[in-house]
Specification:
- This protein is of the alpha+beta class and about 80 residues long.
- Helices cover about 20% and strands about 30% of the residues.
- The chain has one domain.
- The chain is built from two helices and four strands; from the N terminus they run ααββββ.
- The radius of gyration is 14 Å and the shape is globular.
Length: about 80
């Protein structure tokens, strides 16, 4: 909520058509690893900026994996995803 208006802030989640914006923010290493995960059913869900780089989140059913800027994959990330 906005502290000034008590109205909810704009929704940050984006639709499937907006994945191109996420894809363009990823490093080459992230794109390579995401393509490898695609073979197992994972798809890019979203990306979040952490400090100077982006962290990619890939989803397969109810499971998530993260890919950091250097291409390191974490199949059991410890993030709360809503």
């Amino acid at each position: 909520m906005s502290a000034l208006t008590n109205k909810p802030t704009a929704e940050r989640r984006q639709g499937e058509g907006d994945l191109n914006a996420f894809w363009s923010n990823l490093s080459f290493a992230q794109k390579v690893e995401l393509n490898k995960l695609n073979r197992y059913g994972y798809q890019l869900a979203f990306a979040r900026k952490l400090e100077e780089n982006y962290l990619a989140f890939a989803r397969c059913d109810n499971s998530y994996a993260t890919i950091d800027y250097l291409g390191e994959v974490d199949m059991e990330p410890h993030f709360r995803i809503r």
